[in-house]
Specification:
179 residues; alpha/beta; five-stranded parallel sheet; globular
């Protein structure tokens, strides 16, 4: 897989690339139905956009494809690779040291604890994996993220991160594929 590797991409002087993150739910949305991936690639990918994922998303995506959508482990890994290659989804490469990354995690956890009444309100509580994903994007100055998760969206909003929606027809197809 892409674990531990940072894809090299050509940086052209004077061109501003829009950095956009994908959480696991959005990657799954593209993986479960080829029409979603093909439509997204045709309509949302462009030379000026760069898409990123956090290292935690690979295992989470593959696990959900197996457990919720009944793909085999090998089919799930192949779907992961296909989405990454088709939309040029890149692993975030941290420029921050571990202590600095830890401080971003703490900030995101505190914000989410405040939103969720220290986890008592499950509607807005996110687990440590999602806190890590958001803090990874935040630390690398990725300020737009595709997500389908309401609590994830709310936490991002508090950090000034814009959340992007997948087209409704993708979600309808995704629901039909769930077991």
């Amino acid at each position: 897989g892409n674990k531990g590797l940072c894809q090299m991409s050509i940086e052209i002087k004077g061109i501003d690339f829009e950095k956009i993150g994908f959480d696991s739910s959005s990657i799954i949305c593209l993986a479960v139905d080829p029409r979603n991936l093909n439509h997204f690639k045709a309509n949302f990918c462009s030379f000026s956009k760069k898409y990123y994922f956090s290292v935690e998303s690979e295992a989470e995506t593959i696990g959900v494809l197996i457990n919720k959508y009944s793909f085999s482990p090998s089919e799930s890994r192949a779907l992961w690779k296909k989405v990454c290659s088709e939309i040029n989804l890149n692993l975030i490469c941290w420029g921050k040291d571990l202590n600095e990354r830890g401080s971003f995690f703490k900030i995101v956890r505190e914000i989410n604890n405040s939103l969720s009444n220290n986890g008592k309100d499950a509607t807005f509580f996110i687990g440590d994996m999602d806190v890590q994903i958001i803090s990874n994007f935040y630390s690398e100055e990725i300020r737009k993220i595709y997500t389908l998760d309401r609590a994830f969206k709310k936490t991002c909003k508090e950090l000034g991160i814009i959340t992007l929606k997948m087209p409704k027809e993708y979600l309808v197809r995704m629901e039909k594929k769930a077991k």
